[in-house]
């Protein structure tokens, strides 16, 4: 009974494919946990021998455990992002709209992980001022895909380095017919309030 508007759509992800995308995140969690554990153990064993005060040693052990717990959360979060991208590929690629139109997703998990991490860093450093840009950047990567380009044309675009041309130039600002004159943009900063109100009627 799944519907998109008045059109039915179906999704039948294969359990084997879902388990396949689970392997890489599981390895990340295990390896990350082992590394965090070894680092914490080495810090504790190397410092407790040099600290004679039992209370200070206990506080140091608790601090290391808290840092290790934070590291575990970071590793788990990174693995979750990788798993999310893989599951999206499997689920979306199994969807059919109106029993005629196939959906497709092939997010590169390492690329998606880098986008999410860099977006987070930029958002934190700019005190959330760049959050809208980060959201657009992430969604644009998820939506765009060259699958629907003709294979011959795609090979030519790759050879000429045009497949992602303009990805660093922002969004399209203006579209107009080739045989029509370009209208000059209005200088809104110089208009009085009444003129600004009238400008709302302009297309």
Describe the structure.
The structure is a single chain. Helices cover 59% and strands 6% of the residues. It is mainly α. The chain has a 4-stranded antiparallel beta sheet with strand order 1-2-3-4. The chain is extended and about 85 Å long. The mean pLDDT is 85.
Number of helices: 6
Weakly predicted, low-confidence segments: none
SSE order, as H and E?
Answer: EEHHEEHHHH
Provide the structure class.
Answer: mainly alpha
Relative strand content: 5-15%
Could you give a short account of the major beta sheet? Answer: 4 strands, antiparallel
Secondary structure: number of strands: 4
Sequence of strands across the biggest β-sheet: 1-2-3-4
Task: Give the radius of gyration.
Answer: 26 Å
* Fraction in helix: 55-70%
Question: Between the first and last Cα atoms, what is the distance in angstroms?
Answer: 41 Å
- Name the average pLDDT: 85
Query: What is the overall shape?
Result: extended
What is this structure, in a nutshell?
Helices cover 59% and strands 6% of the residues. The chain is mainly alpha-helical.
List keywords for this structure.
203 residues; mainly alpha; four-stranded antiparallel beta sheet; 6 helices
Secondary structure layout:
Elements: E1 3-4, E2 7-11, H1 15-48, H2 54-93, E3 95-97, E4 101-102, H3 109-125, H4 131-143, H5 151-159, H6 193-199
Antiparallel strand pairs: 1-2, 2-3, 3-4
Helix pairs in contact: 1-2, 2-3, 3-4
């Amino acid at each position: 009974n799944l519907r998109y508007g008045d059109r039915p759509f179906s999704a039948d992800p294969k359990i084997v494919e879902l388990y396949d995308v689970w392997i890489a995140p599981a390895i990340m969690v295990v390896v990350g946990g082992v590394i965090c554990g070894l680092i914490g153990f080495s810090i504790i064993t190397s410092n407790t021998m040099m600290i004679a005060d039992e209370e200070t040693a206990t506080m140091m052990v608790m601090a290391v455990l808290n840092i290790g717990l934070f590291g575990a959360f970071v590793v788990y979060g990174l693995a979750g992002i990788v798993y999310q991208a893989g599951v999206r590929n499997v689920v979306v690629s199994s969807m059919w709209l109106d029993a005629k139109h196939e959906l497709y997703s092939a997010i590169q998990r390492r690329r998606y992980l880098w986008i999410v991490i860099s977006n987070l860093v930029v958002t934190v450093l700019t005190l959330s001022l760049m959050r809208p840009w980060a959201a657009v950047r992430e969604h644009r990567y998820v939506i765009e895909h060259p699958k629907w380009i003709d294979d011959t044309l795609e090979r030519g675009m790759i050879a000429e380095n045009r497949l992602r041309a303009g990805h660093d130039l922002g969004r399209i600002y203006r579209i107009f017919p080739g045989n029509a004159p370009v209208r000059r943009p209005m200088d809104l900063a110089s208009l009085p309030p009444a003129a600004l109100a009238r400008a709302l009627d302009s297309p």
